[in-house]
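Entry 14. Structure prediction run on the chain below.
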Amino acid sequence: TQIKVGNREADRFIIGSSPGMAEVVDIIEKVAAGATSTVLIQGESGTGKELVAKAIHHQSHLKERRPFLAINCAGLPENLLESELFGHEKGAFTDARERKRGLLEIANGGTLFLDEIGEMPIGLQARLLRVLEERSFRRVGGVQDIEVNLRIVAATNRDLKREAQEGRFREDLFFRLNVVPINIPPLRTRASDVPVLASYFVQTYNRELSRTVRGFSPGARERLMGYEWPGNVRELKNVIERAILLESADVILESHLPLELSPRAEAPAALTATGEDFDPRPLREVELEYIQRTVEHFGGNKSKAARVLGISRQTLRDKLQAAERALQEGTVQALEGASASIPADADQISATPTKS
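Output returned:
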C-alpha cells in the first residue's frame, strides 16, 4: 500500500498503512494547502524526517518549480554554518574573496529544511529567530536587510521542548518553530508498515540492481516482523539492499538476513518469576542459565548465541568452560572465581545494528 501525498502522481510518497502514518499524511496535506507556516518534525533517527519535509514541499508547489534546499545543522562548525545559511559579503572574513548568497536567499519562495536543528549553536539560533519573526536577514558582514518569503521546516531526534526547558535550546525559537508539529512514530510501533516498506524496497532495488526478487519466505517475513528496528526505516532499507545485493536467489530467505535480526532466547524463570515464585539466586547462576538456554535456542551454534548475547565467541566459550569446571568441583564458589578471571573488557560484539 502506498499512501500518496495529495494528488501527487510522481516521485514522492509516504509509504505505510498504519494509523500513525495516516495521521502524518493528513497533517502534510493540510500544511501544504495553507500558508508558509513553520513546521517542526520530531522523530527518532532513520524515521524519514527529510522525506516528510520533501512531501510538504512538493505538495505545496504542484504547479510550479520552487527550490527545496536542506542542510544538516550538526555537520558544520558554527562560522561555516552561519555562512552557508546567511551568505556573506566580500571581505567579511579572511577567505571571503567574493560575495556569496546563503541558503535562506537561494531558497526564497520555496522550502529550507534544517535537519538536526537541536544541534544549532545558540548564537545562530538568535539569528534564525529574527528570520522567522521579521522575514528578513543580513549576510555576514552586510548592512542591507534581505527580505525572504519561504517555508522553514526543521527536524530533530531530540525532545526539543525539554531541551528548551533545560536551557539547551532557545525557548522562544522552539515556540516559533513548533507552529505545526509533526511526530513520526518509530517503526517498532507500527509493525504493519514493515512488510509494506520491505516490499517497496525490494521493488526499488530490483530496479536499481537489475534483479527480479519476488518477495520473502515465511521465515524471513516473520524475522522482519519480529525485530524492533532501532534504526527504523533506514535500517530496514539497508537490510533489504544488502540481501538483494549479496544473494542470488529470487526470494529473500531467513538465512539472507543479518544475525542481528535473530529472535531473542526466552529469559530463564529466575528473571521472570514474581511474588512467591521468585527464588533469589546468585547472579552467576542466573547468567549461566541464560547463556545455556540461549545456546540451546540456536541449536548449539555458539556464534549466533554470542552475537545475540552481545559478547564475543571466545568470551562465551570461556564462560561455558568456567561453568563446566565449577560443576566438576561441585561448588558455586569455584564458578564465581573462574568467571571473575574473565577480563571485564573482553572483546564485545554489539547486538545492536550500526546506523548507516
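The chain has a mean pLDDT of 82.
Filed with the rest of this week's runs.
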